[in-house]
């Protein structure tokens, strides 16, 4: 890893002058935008010409896209540690692009679409830990905070922009190029372009050879042991997992909030987008000025802020106030996400990064999914007992207290470990 340059400019200017990081960042922008639009394309292909089982087909595509994240995240991280990150990143993008390009030539069946969806999602889950592990290889420690801030902004921005422009972009592509497979050429080509950009990454990464007799399950067990015994890394991962659980819960709660505020559940996207905007604002501020708050308990402040925001959501009755509260929650979420992501990168040895980020991606995906079911059950019980609005308020207040309690515990655990390191 390159040594920190203490004379280098602080903030975004420094990392953007790093051509290797710039290549990785551009590839992230392209691939994450395409990820969102590909999901729209696959759903549209699945429901084309069908009117009776639209919901089942949409859900099937989403499940096929989600399953690899739950079952393969940790294994993907181990694989990444065994191979150069540059090769993994390039190969994943080329293969994802190929999967999209061959769709028109495959049997046009639901089963085939599910297979393609599963394969693309699997490749994405290998790409993610390789991407996160590559950042410390090309960025000095002094620039890790703004680098992670830029990646967080891109992640959130692609979520908002990708789903917003996806359908219009695909429709415009079909209109401008009236060929049946023009959409596949566009998206497959963008994946491949992203892979070409990644050729700018360094080739001289040191790969620790796999020991004889060591396999995936041995490495997976070692990764669990490492996280369990390293309280700093474990604490940071717990906080990130808790954050994703809150964000996952917000997806369900936004539906009920929209029903209370606007009487239209279809408006839930506004509240989710407001949280995303807040995350981007928080990331932007931390990336530029985070060094000034290096010794502040930012994650603890973030959990307190998110708990306050969730409590406020219980009493929102105006759309604009609701959007402001969502933005407030997102800003505080950034205070957890970026420092803890940076901590994991900074204090994890190179030969363990893929494993650790694989476990982290796995836990984040489960945390973003499991609360959806639990929240739905809690809302059903509460609204049936106390009515729509009062039931919703009770769930929001209880959730606020849970986030405050768990956030305080997780930060206290991490703080003790951080003090030992420093």
Which features does this protein show?
80% helix, 422 residues, Growth Hormone, Chain: A, mainly alpha, disordered N terminus, 0% strand, 2 domains
Rg for CA atoms: 22 Å
As a percent range, the share of helical residues equals over 70%
Encode the helix/strand succession as letters. HHHHHHHHHHHHHH
Going by CATH, the homologous superfamily of the largest domain would be MFS general substrate transporter like domains
Name the poorly predicted regions. Answer: 1-9
End-to-end CA span: 20 Å
Spatial shape:
globular
| CATH architecture annotation of the largest domain | Up-down Bundle
Q: Treating each run of at least 4 consecutive H or I residues as one helix, how many helices?
A: 14
Average pLDDT number: 80
CATH-derived topology of the largest domain: Growth Hormone, Chain: A
**Number of structural units classed as domains:** 2
For the report, how would you describe the main beta sheet?
none
| CATH structural class of the largest domain | Mainly Alpha
Label the structural class: mainly alpha
Approximately what portion of the residues adopt beta-strand conformation?
under 5%
How many individual β-strands?
A: 0
Give a structural overview:
By secondary structure, the protein is mostly helical. It has 14 helices and no strands. It has helices spanning 12-16, 19-47, 54-82, 85-101, 110-138, 144-176, 182-197, 216-229, 231-261, 268-289, 298-313, 319-347, 353-386, 388-421. Helix 3 packs antiparallel against helix 13 (353-386), helix 5 (110-138) packs across helix 13 (353-386) and helix 6 crosses helix 12. The model is unreliable at 1-9 (pLDDT under 50).
């Amino acid at each position: 890893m390159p040594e920190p340059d203490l004379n280098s400019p602080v903030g975004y200017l420094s990392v953007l002058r790093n051509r290797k990081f710039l290549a990785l960042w551009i590839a992230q922008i392209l691939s994450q935008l395409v990820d969102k639009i590909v999901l729209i394309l696959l759903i549209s292909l699945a429901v084309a010409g069908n009117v009776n089982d639209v919901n089942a087909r949409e859900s099937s595509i989403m499940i096929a896209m989600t399953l690899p994240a739950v079952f393969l995240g940790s294994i993907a991280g181990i694989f990444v540690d065994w191979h150069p990150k540059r090769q993994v990143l390039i190969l994943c993008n080329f293969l994802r692009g190929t999967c999209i390009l061959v769709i028109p030539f495959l049997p046009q069946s639901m089963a085939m679409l599910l297979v393609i969806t599963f394969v693309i999602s699997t490749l994405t889950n290998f790409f993610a830990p390789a991407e996160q592990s590559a950042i410390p290889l090309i960025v000095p420690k002094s620039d890790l905070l703004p680098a992670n801030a830029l990646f967080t902004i891109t992640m959130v921005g692609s979520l908002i922009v990708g789903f917003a422009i996806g359908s219009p972009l695909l429709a415009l592509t079909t209109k401008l190029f009236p060929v049946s497979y023009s959409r596949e050429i566009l998206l497959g080509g963008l994946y491949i372009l992203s892979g070409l950009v990644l050729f700018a990454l360094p080739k001289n990464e040191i790969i620790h050879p796999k020991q004889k007799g060591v396999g995936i399950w041995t490495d997976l067990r070692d990764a669990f042991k490492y996280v369990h015994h390293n309280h700093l890394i474990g604490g940071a991962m717990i906080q990130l997992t808790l954050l994703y659980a809150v964000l996952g819960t917000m997806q369900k709660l936004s539906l009920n909030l929209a029903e209370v505020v606007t009487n239209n559940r279809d408006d839930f996207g506004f509240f989710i987008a407001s949280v995303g905007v807040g995350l981007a604002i928080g990331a932007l501020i931390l990336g530029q000025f985070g060094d000034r708050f290096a010794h502040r308990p930012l994650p603890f402040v973030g959990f307190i802020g998110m708990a306050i925001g969730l409590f406020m959501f219980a009493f929102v009755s105006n759309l604009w106030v609701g959007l402001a509260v969502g933005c407030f929650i997102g800003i505080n979420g950034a205070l957890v996400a970026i420092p803890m992501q940076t901590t994991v990168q900074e204090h994890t040895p190179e030969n363990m990064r893929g494993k650790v980020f694989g476990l982290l991606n796995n836990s984040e995906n489960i945390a973003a999914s499991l609360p959806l079911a639990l929240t739905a059950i809690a809302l059903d019980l509460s609204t049936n007992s106390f009515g729509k609005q009062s039931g919703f308020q009770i769930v929001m207040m209880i959730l606020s207290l849970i986030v405050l309690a768990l956030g305080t515990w997780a930060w206290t655990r991490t703080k003790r470990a951080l003090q030992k390191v420093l």
